[in-house]
Structure formats: structure tokens, C-alpha cells
Amino acid sequence: MPTPKDILKKHWGFDSFRPLQEEIIRSVLDGKDTLALLPTGGGKSICYQIPALAREGIAIVISPLIALMKDQVENLRKRGIKAEAIFSGMHIRDIDRILDNCAYGDIKLLYLSPERLLNYMVIERIKKMNINLLAVDEAHCISQWGYDFRPPYLKIADIREFLPKGTPILALTATATEEVAKDIQEKLQFKTPHTFKGSFVRDNLSYSVLYVHRKEEKLAEILINIKGSSIVYARNRRATREIAAYLQKHRINADYYHAGLSMELRTQKQDNWKSGKTRVMVSTNAFGMGIDKPDVRVVVHMDLPESLEAYYQEAGRAGRDGQKSFAVLLYNEGDRQHLEFVHEISFPSMDVLRQTYRALANYYQLGIGTPEGASFEFDFNAFVKTYRLHALTTMHALRVLEQESWIALTESFYLPSSMMFKVDRAVVFEYLLQNPNVENLLKTLLRSAQGQAFLNFVNLNESSIANFLKIPIKSLQQQIAFIAKSGIIDYRPQTENPRITFLQERVPVENLSINLEAFNFRKNRLHERITKAIQYAENKSCRSLSLIHYFGEESTQSCGICDVCLGRHQVELSSGDFERYKDKIIRILTGNPTKEKVLLESFSFKHHTKVRTTLSYLMDEGIVEKEGNTYLLHD
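Below the sequence we write its predicted C-alpha cells.
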């Protein structure tokens, strides 16, 4: 068999591996269960793609990100590697065909979304495959300690008994704390655990937290001073549009991106940014996953994310080429208040959960006793409008129902139009004689499918066909639908909507139940992550050290390039200001321990930064103590 380096050179054109890649690949090829903790941009996919090619058989890759699976399959095929993907929303015939090809053909990698492991048909076919590796991407999703827990991941270990003896598991993630890393290995039932951990230190990336009230003004100033490709992360879709418009008004080449745009428009915007036609992309966190653009010079967060895992991953999209780059967080008291609100609303009451479940069942007309597995396109906006539900509360209720394994939700993804002939050629030509008005179209479909459409579904490039026939694309789709009604073809129009799948039998709403212990555990963990994120923003210690310590990496060497190390966090505080703030703080705290939020509200917002500086000096002098979130005078 070829060596890993031979495979790397043949298919990717590289002469050498990135740090730790070769060691991880060797561990897997030696049959060892392996955990790879590689930071964003560390080249995780190579670590399972090469072992898959180095051994007889097929590798199964579990991934929760449909768009990423589709991209990887397309990229592998371009390199001459046979790969397939199965995810929610696919037709049963396509799934059946792909599984057959994986069991009896020469497919080398099969990508599966985790909820597919709940499907009996998939499990039965897996038993027939010669599997050489089970790879688990985004492995932190298996842990309730983590920030993106997904219950279907807990089923992954169950399929180990169906794998050939000695088949290793490779778990990969960019963001795992020590607790999460340990949990991953336990949940996946590692037999011979080997862990490879890349350093979380980014020597070329300067982290900064800037305390500002007018964030858009500061953003424009940053982008004027730091040239080059940039990403700006905003809280919601509306904000992406407004911020992009603000930057354009100030003659900064910017565009916006979010998951609510059509696939065609998202692809166009993404390509413009990757090629440099667009300099700044203002986006929700839907942007950036799987995009390998090494020359991003600055990533700006307009708001503090809910976890340092999310922040580190998103900020880490800057400077992958090793050149000096910047990760900037614009922060003020509103961020703290928003995250406190997020924690409060993220775990709805049972009444809200039951109301949401009832609405879903009514929306899809699911009677009590409807078996598990029902799957539908899901238009969230139409759903909440139909039942007059509060959008944010409903979104979190759906998330809890998913975590409790009642439903599974997929992100929006694009499925092109496809067709398959339902009759043989003789019937098709007889139909042509009887329907000359669709002769040109049907002959074009026959030519474009090259005979494959009599065996399987084939994708239709409707835009190209419409251009060839010189008719509007809407007219083309109507004609294809007309042929489909006659029973000659099976036609599936393109779709790019998210999907919802019911994982359990439909029960009376009063029988809906959740695991309260797990529910409360996740609630407490979210509070801990939010607290750590706020501490990162408000503490005055090296930003890089704060991040790597959070992920369990031991180091005492300050980065020397963040805002704290450069002294840019310092607040000008005159002696007179200090004495005035000091006197008022002592009056408030005398005989009355006070929470930080309440203490700050005793001063106007514009003074909060100086008040925090005064408090830090008073703690250094031993005048004030801090216990948890509460300040009190030292005895």
C-alpha cells in the first residue's frame, strides 16, 4: 500500500504534513483509538482522509454540518477520490443506492450526519461494509460539558460492535476543554486512547478587547487602520445588513451574509469575498465554517459570544497564513446584560416546551401514535407566524426538544433539482410521439442524463437547460412538472430549506417529558461558559494566556502583542477621579456587600470603565474583596 506521504503528494500535491498530522495518521493506521485536538485551520480532515485511502475498505465520517459534508465530498471527487454523503432530506432511493455502493462498490469515504445512526436501514448496511476507520468530526458535540451538545452523537459508540475487529476511532475537534476531551473518550468507548493536542497559542494573532459605546464608529476606525480581508461577526441577521450599510456609507468595501439568504446569493457573496472582490464580510456565525482563506487580517466581534470555544474558533479564522493579524472584541455593559438574558431564555419552562411540541404536531398534522422518522421541510418564520409564537423563545424550545431527542433539526442546505425516468425507453419514445409540445425538452433531458437517469436520480442544471432551450427557467420547471404528472419521470425540485425530523413516536402533549437532571446540568454549564466569557472580556490579563489556560494548556509566557500586554487597556484615571470613585464605592459597600451589576448601576454608564479600574486598585490595596460576583469591604 502507498505511504501517507505518497497519498498526500498524489492527491493534494504537498510534500510534507502540517504539525501533528503525520503522528495522528500513524496512530490511526496502528489501530489506536485517537483524539486529535487541533486548532481551527490545523488541517483535521487530512487526518482521516489519508488513513481511509491507505487501507482497504471504507471510512465512515460522522459530521453534523451538511454544507461541510457536501463541500468535502465535492473536493474529494475533484481529487479523484470516491466519496458519498448521506444526510436528512435525501430521498430513500438515493440513500439506498449510496449504501449499496458503499457496501459492494469502491467508495472510500462515507459521510453521515449523526441522526442517520438512528436509522435501521443505515445500521444494517453498515454491518455489510468493510470499514477501516470511524472518524468523528466536531467530536465535542458528544459532550454535555461542551457548548454544542447533540444527542445523536451519543449513538456513535453503539455501532462499534458492527465494525471489523480492531477498527479504530478518530475523534477530532478544535475546541475542547479538559473535561470535554475526557468525556469524548468515555462516550466513544476508547480502548487504547492516544491524544494529540496542538498548541492553542497563535503567535501571529493579536487579541484585543476594546470597551466602546459607539461600536460602529470604532469598527470603521479599525478597518481603516488595518488593511486587508476581514470578517465582522454580528449578533443577528438585521445587524449584518445595518453594519454593512454603515461601512459602505464610510467607503469601506463591505457586504453581509447570513443563513436566511438563498443558496445562490450566499455562494455569490462568499465567492466575492474569497476572491477579494469584497473586502469585509459582515456575518452571523453561519459564515466561515470550512472556508480556507488564509489571508484574513482581522476578525472583529461586535458582541461577546456565549462561550470562549465559539470565540476562539471564530477569531482563529484570522491569520492562518502566519502573518500578523488581529482579533478584536468590541465590548460594553450591553454585552454582559445580553448574555445574562440569553441564559435566562435558553431553558424554557415545560409549559413552553409542550406548547411548542403541540404546535409542531399540528403544523405537520401528526396524529398521536405517528411513528418516529417523519421528516419535513421546516420554515421557522412561517411556523412562528402561524401560531403567533415568540421567535426567540421558540428557537430555544426547539433546541431543548432536540437535546432531549424528540426532534432533529438540520441547517439550511441546498439540494439541486433532480429527476429519474420511471419507465423504460420504449415508453418514453411513445410518449414523445403523443406529446410533441415537450419533445425538445424531453430529448434534452435524455441527452443531459446520458442514460444514467434510467438507473438513478441525476441532478438537473435547470439554468443551463433553460439557456439551451431559450426559455425562462420558470417555464422550464413548469414543463418538467407537467411531464412528471404523466408518470414518465420522478421530478424533485430544488430546495434549500432546513428540515425537521421527529425522532420519537408522537405522544399526547401531557406525556412529553425531559431529563430534568441533564436539563439543569446544561443550564449550569451555560452559566459557567458565559461567566468565563465575561471574565475574558473584563479581566486585565494577557488575552492569549486567558484563552489557552481555558483549554487546559499550561504556559506562563505572555504573548506580548495583545491589548493588555501592550498596555492599551489602561484607563486614564486622575487622582481626583480615583478619590471620588473610591469614596462612593466605600459608602455603597459599608455594611452592604453588593453585586457588581448593582454597584455599576450606581454610576452613569460612561464612568463604568473607570469604576472597574478603581475597583481593581482597591482590591490590589486590600480595601475591597470580591467573592463570586459580589464586592465587599475587607475586614
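The radius of gyration is 27 Å.
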